[in-house]
Amino acid sequence: MTERKPPSFGIIGAGFSGSLLAVHLLRRLPHGSRVHLIERRGEFGSGLAFSTPNSSHLLNVRAERMSAFEREPAHFQNWLADQHEDEGPGGSAFVPRGMYGRYVQSLLADQLAAENGNRNLYLFPDEAVDLELGADGAVIQMSGGRPVRVDAAVLAVGNFPPQVPSGAEALAGSPHYVANPWDAEVTRAISHDAALLVIGSGLTMVDFVLNMLDRGHRGPIYAMSRRGLLPHRHAPSPPPVPWVPEELPLSAQVRKMRHAVESHDWRAVFDGVRPHTQSWWSNLPVEQRKRFLRHLRPWWDIHRHRMAPEVARRIDEAIGRGALTVLAGRFQTIEAEGQRLAIRYRPRGRDAQGHLAVDHVVNCSGPSSDYGAIEQKLVRALLKRGAIRPDALSLGLDVDVSLKLLDAEGKVQPRLYGLGPVTKGRFWECTAVPEIRRQAEELAERLVADWL
Ligand SMILES: Cc1cc2nc3c(=O)[nH]c(=O)nc-3n(C[C@H](O)[C@H](O)[C@H](O)COP(=O)(O)OP(=O)(O)OC[C@H]3O[C@@H](n4cnc5c(N)ncnc54)[C@H](O)[C@@H]3O)c2cc1C
User: Fold this and answer.
1) Measured between alpha carbons, how far is 405 from 414 in angstroms, rounded to an integer?
2) Residue 16 C-alpha to ligand 1 middle, in angstroms?
3) Domains (range + CATH), the chain
4) What is the pTM of this model?
5) Sign of dihedral through CA atoms 153, 155, 157, 158?
6) Ligand 1, residues at Cβ distance < 6 Å
7) Which of 11, 104, 159, when mutated, tests ligand 1's pocket best, judged by the most ligand atoms within 8 Å of its CB?
8) pLDDT of 119 above 80
9) Please, what is the average pLDDT of the chain?
10) Whole-angstrom distance, CA of residue 20 vs CA of residue 193
């Protein structure tokens, strides 16, 4: 009997999701196997979320919950302690996201060191631009380098810049429009006295405003969203309220949560529900998921995705002195008026029209997940060939429970998997570290079982 060749895998995207999957695979695979990790940013490990150089950008999860390994809960805290001569930040601290990026990088570095001359991990600082799937393997085409042939590939492509909101399409390409709020170069070019309209009032807006405050911005900043809701802040709260999971329809689940917060701290209720959200969401009919997105999402998001206390204090302070104004409304027209932009909007709940004159509009409507509209070569190529399809809610890509992607006809792709935010349509609660770390470990176990 001929022995099976050690497997080779291609992971596209080396943010937290792709990097952690690589680490778990390498811990399980025999020598001779290959893990190809492909990252277009050049920097491996940090991804979009954890590459920010601004130390005001804090994790929105306490350090004690940010271990990369569910079975080693103190792993991140121990790493943090090793970085400090004194005690370092405690478990309840919210540390800078850039520091977390260095932690993830250290996991890859440790893995490379552990290979001890037996190379299993191959790093490709390149962009994957296409992926051909065949009966005997998959070939990943690169923007610069040679193609890579693998047994199976994983899309861990993460978060994309926000989509142009409807009503603002005419701004695309304008020098007055900041399409990618995470692009430090672009925001550095904004003059200190410029008046800014930020679209969105969630955590992306918070990041952007912190950048501006740190740069000593003097001009007025308006943040506008349909409801003008700001994320809540983290605060000490009792332990999670034990939640008995039930297959409830949307309205009954909401009633149950409302009932729970009447007698418990709301944070403890959300924390108790969180471990059950994936299975509840997965069993919810698509129509009810759509209703959730239409009516409840803004409230869910501000309770679930909270600001670190120090971040909340700075945002409150900026609002208090008039540097930041949060508006609830929907913009109607945006027109060039000399060197500025004239904005007409409809304040929420009123017939009157509001007016603003600003120098820049900054799109902070949050990461785009509508794959039908994402302009990336790899995504476009895979969609064109019918190898993948967006999920029914345009939250990500269609996957089955084992994270295998579905093609345009809904058939399971045997050699192509999704990981992290890519799978949000199916699982909803899968975009933050505590969920991704489990998904990455489970996927590594499955890949090894399927291909070794
Ligand atoms: C601004 C921000 C802050 C966040 N803060 C927190 C937090 O504090 N705590 C928390 O738990 N979660 C946070 N999150 C949630 C975040 O989604 C996850 O924690 C996690 O970082 C997601 O990792 P990822 O690798 O899936 O995505 P990403 O970090 O987006 O990484 C994906 C990587 O794939 C690369 N890539 C994409 N396409 C290609 C291609 N074709 N070829 C090669 N490379 C490609 C990208 O360059 C990128 O580096 C935050 C998210 C954002 C956007």
Assistant:
1) 8
2) 6
3) 8-57+96-160+369-451 (3.50.50.60), 169-229+318-363 (3.50.50.60), 250-304 (no CATH)
4) 0.95
5) negative
6) 12-13, 15-18, 38-41, 47-50, 59-61, 97, 127-128, 156-159, 207, 367, 376, 378, 420-421, 431-433, 436
7) 159
8) no
9) 94
10) 42
